[in-house]
Records
---
Amino acid sequence: MIDLNYTTDILLKLLNTPSPTGDTDAAIALVEQAFSALKIATRRTGKGALLATIPGKKSDAPRAISGHVDTLGGMVKEIKPDGRLKISNLGGYYPGSIVGEYCTVHTGDGKTVSGTVLLNRQSVHIHKVNNIHEQAADLQQTEIRLDARTSSAEETAALGISVGDFVSWEPRATLTDSGFIKSRHLDDKAGVAAMLGAAEALSRRNIIPAQTTHFYISTFEEVGHGAAAGIPANTAELLVVDMGVVGEGQTGDEYSVSICAKDSSGPYDLHLRRRLESLARANGIPYRVDVFVSYGSDGSAALRAGLDARVGLIGPGVDGSHAYERTHQEALQATAGLIAAYLQKD
Ligand SMILES: [Zn+2]
């Protein structure tokens, strides 16, 4: 039912559209276009998220499905006297995971300047290497070397760069012949691609969802308040689509959809979870149930903000989260398939 080429293509386009949390307009525009190509009406919310609504056979218990396009990133904190940049983090990550990464500074006048994240004392031919791990654990010990001739704060300012400019990391999005997708920011662009994959499948086959369903594309998840606003008030159920945690001690893998039983904010709705599990079984969709011990979602944000609804969380299994991540097309397929099954089921 799911068109995996469509879903993968949308994912790669999204991955190649920078959207650090707080600077997400281009990614929202891309998703908006994708929904409008499917003839699904959209509107933007007050704080810049996107709401796409598919009318259902019934609308007595409307549903919302959310995913986030905002990603980890940085912001220029300071222009150093030697022209290099100090950054402040957007979202939570281990600074060592960006050391050596290419990046792009997005200036106020709409230009971009490329650079590389380095340790302040990077050259082993000058500095002793024994404190390299200590340095890599501290964002204060990293800097951005710009690909421009600058050796002073004035020269960097003349490039159009100012404190407050957003910085995005090179995603290095790659689809391998073996079906793996490795990239930064699969969290949660893989989830959003799966949502579109499900919407496309229903639209292509002229299937009307069981209930009126709002697709909420969130823009501030990584900083904790994404879906705190914008989910329509009469929503009876919220299905959050966000990355499944894969790694030591987890049951999830890169070939399945993860169903989250509990995260740091507590258990997800039991009734909804049981329904999702049985839907996956009935449709032959590979799924794994897991507890995410160090994790919060837009579901937690919506509940804390007072949403009175059943909330569930599913997502493609993603390895190496908040660093150079990886999933497999099979996980995309499983996630999109479960969303499509959920949309159709009473
Ligand atoms: Zn996420």
---
Amino acid sequence: MGKSILSKEEIQQFNADGYLVVRGALNLVEVEEIKSAFMQIHAQGRVDKYFEPVSMEEAQGDILKVYPRVMQAHYYNDTSLHYMIHPKVIGMVGELLGEEAFGTQSMFYFKPPGAKGQALHQDNYYLKVEPGTCIAAWTAIDYCDRDNGGMMVVPKSGELEIICPTVADPKVSFTQAIVHVPKGMKAIDVVMEPGDTLFFNGKVIHGSGPNRSKDRFRRAFICHYVGASTTKIGSFFNKLYGADGAVVEREANEITGPCGDEFAGLYGH
Ligand SMILES: O=C(O)CCC(=O)C(=O)O
């Protein structure tokens, strides 16, 4: 076994709270490389199914339609693949999982000023990883706080089961489903600098509010991972990349569990 990247205390904190912020997980040169790769994707335009921006005119005032999130970018962008399986990041996820990690999703959110947020949710409702759950690595590309729609997490919610979502407020969320914070728990803001990475497990309730700032984008590079012992995963995510870039598959999970399928479609997450 190589030298650990995370300390024992960091792993304990992740296990206790369901999340962990690693300050400066990526350096500023790496952050710039990710940012410019995705600004270039935006400048080049539509990638069928994964990135479908519209013109200002078509967006009719919804700026997020001009800057929608980029999905599964590692399928068609080398920088995204490189950073999804970056040895440091996938290595940290492996230490949090306690086993070899595989990358299953890479996304980029531009979240310009005026953009809607993403209502509180639990990722494994969408990824359908069994047994266990997935882990997200959410890396800040811009400084983020509540004002520009930074991330919110509910500490200790990572111990809960999947809670059935209800309909979210379309004025503040671009996704349709919301999980309400259980009694006795509270959502907190996670203020982050460029290069900080927030790790959280697939049961942690998390999301973000609108970007209410005048002029601050809130860009983020977001990847999801599963452990080697995963036997099933939702079919949209069923292409698992090891640290060496080799791809494996698992059984496709079409079972949506007790909550049904109302919100768990391809683009629900
Ligand atoms: O970046 C955001 O605003 C929300 C991202 C998120 O909730 C997710 O990737 O699951």
